[in-house]
Write a structure and sequence with these properties.
single chain; about 325 residues; alpha/beta; Rossmann fold; about 45% helix; about 15% strand
Length: about 325
Amino acid sequence: MRRWTNRRIVVTGGAGFLGSYVVRKLREDGCQDIFVPRSRDYDLRDHDAIIRLYRDAGPSIVIHLAAVVGGIGANRSNPGRFFYDNAIMGIQLMEYARQFGVEKFVAVGTVCAYPKLTPVPFKETNLWDGYPEETNAPYGLAKKMMLVQAQAYREQYGFNAIYLIPVNLYGPGDNFDLETGHVIPALIRKCVEAKENGWRRISLWGDGSPTREFLYALDAAEAIVLATERYDGDLPVNLGSKEEISIRNLAKLIATETGFDGEIEWDTTKPNGQPRRSLDTSRAKDLFGFEAAHRLEDGIRKTVAWFLSNRQKS
């Protein structure tokens, strides 16, 4: 019998980008009882709304994906909001899950929780070796508090909460807004619009030297569902693809896939963000058998194709 047989699962953020993939994966794996709270009905910053959610849904398992997120610009403009909204959602959702007797709580954190100068590849044991990169530290630390809470609740209450750390996600259905989207969807949109408008030049933040690792959203959903079913430990677990690429080379790849053959300028007055990001994913493989299936080039191709077919909706 699967972990969720005859159990109701609440997926916060289940109508969002990653959440829609997780809900689909759960259904494919036989979960028939999924409750997706919508923000218009349940403000997850409000403890009364959270209490009402648990009374209405009566979940056995909670997968917490809801977050206030954005790229470097959004993080710089909203550090207070990104800290408070993310911290208060996680803290209250886990506390009331404990009070309502939820069987398992799956907390999904962020690679932004790692120290700015973490040696590559990032190991989970490095999480407390320094302060996160400044432009996204409030967001990263807010999400990191769920790890502290999960471990404290396990020790004091025997509460089964696990903590997962995905790298930057991308894929069909992503947020392609230039102000709030992350690097891959923003680059895709910039290149497509430049090609369509005959622009010979696009400008990107920083100098292109930072490296990143990206995880296709479908793979991330697979990892989260595997962990929900198979992992019940107190150790944080990285979720990644094991592919590290510089932002400069990523821009070239996306330009090629979109057919943009103009010049890419780098605005060095804007921040680079964290110098390098790449994860050691051996713990995920060892503890619940996860390995990413999609290569970056293939995932980018599928994401570009989706954007070209759906950009009126994006």
